[in-house]
Amino acid sequence: MAILEIVNLTKNFGAFVAVRGVTLQIEEFATHAIIGPNGAGKTTLFNLISGLASPTTGEVWYRQQRLARLQPHEIVRAGMARSFQRVNVFSRRTAFENVQVALIASAGINYNFLRNAGSLFREEALELLRLVRCEDEALRRASELAYGKQKQLELAVALAAKPKLLLLDEPTAGMSIAETKSTIGLIKDVVADRGLTLLFTEHDMNVVFEIASAISVLHHGEIIASGAPEDVRKNDDVRRVYLGQD
Asked: N or C terminus: fewer CB in 10 A for the chain?
């Protein structure tokens, strides 16, 4: 059963068409990769799905709920969370505080940064930090963490919303080989531990073919291939347009 349905989705920026007539189904519990060259429309597609941008035409359905007119925070509360290419955490707050604030927001509790949150969601925050392998960094400011650890912290913040569908935009971008390998293992563990459906964009083909159960390829805003990894790998259009092969 599809957890996410994208129907004839198009996004124009003036005369430029960033996403063109995308129709796609993401099956529940799948690990589905969206790949394509730079400028193919991957991040724009994610913005449309998560409510950060409005489509010119087309619709997005999450668990048979139409997402049109929903604000991003309402989409998060419906069960969808995402990360970004650039780390999106509170740099002056500790790793623990970042996750704690996310848990407070997810619970719908008003929070004032000038007031100490005390023990609210303490155990839940520590458990998420353990899950993403950041427990040793709990009391360090996010700005002091290595880049790979900041991305792990951002994942914990996304998980605080208790999503069923997790969107990760370039989760290994800018990472070293060692950080990338660690992140692959972490993503696998988190998806299995939480029973998540994962939709992600990625530039590293080793990452894609190691963890994806399905792949869709974007080129100039259009889906040119979609299916199992081996089928996509053998697709002539993909080899020519994306992989640079004849």
From this structure: C
